[in-house]
Design brief:
single chain, alpha+beta, two-stranded antiparallel sheet, extended, 5 strands, 3-stranded antiparallel beta sheet
Length: 92
């Protein structure tokens, strides 16, 4: 089974689990992206057709947390929200 088919099956399973055409907080899926290597990824539609070849792996954006304009340190985040599984330092 191809990576694309596996990803589409996983997506369908999630949608069935939520009994919806949308995934909570993400909305309605429009396609998938498979990262094959750090410098090669393929974006496909929901039928599995390649739509775009990317010259690097797709990465989700970085998240930072600030109060006012001041970044909050990992230690402060832990004090506010409790222990987290992974805290990435804030880049400025």
């Amino acid at each position: 089974m191809s990576y694309i088919q596996q990803a589409l099956n996983g997506l369908r399973h999630k949608l069935q689990r939520w009994k919806s055409e949308q995934i909570p907080t993400f909305g309605r899926p429009t396609g998938i992206i498979i990262n094959y290597t750090p410098d090669h990824a393929v974006r496909s539609d929901l039928e599995g057709n390649a739509v775009e070849v990317l010259d690097r792996a797709y990465r989700l954006g970085d998240v930072s947390f600030s109060i006012g304009k001041r970044p909050v340190s990992p230690g402060e985040l832990e004090a506010l929200f409790g222990r987290t599984t992974r805290i990435v330092p804030i880049r400025q």
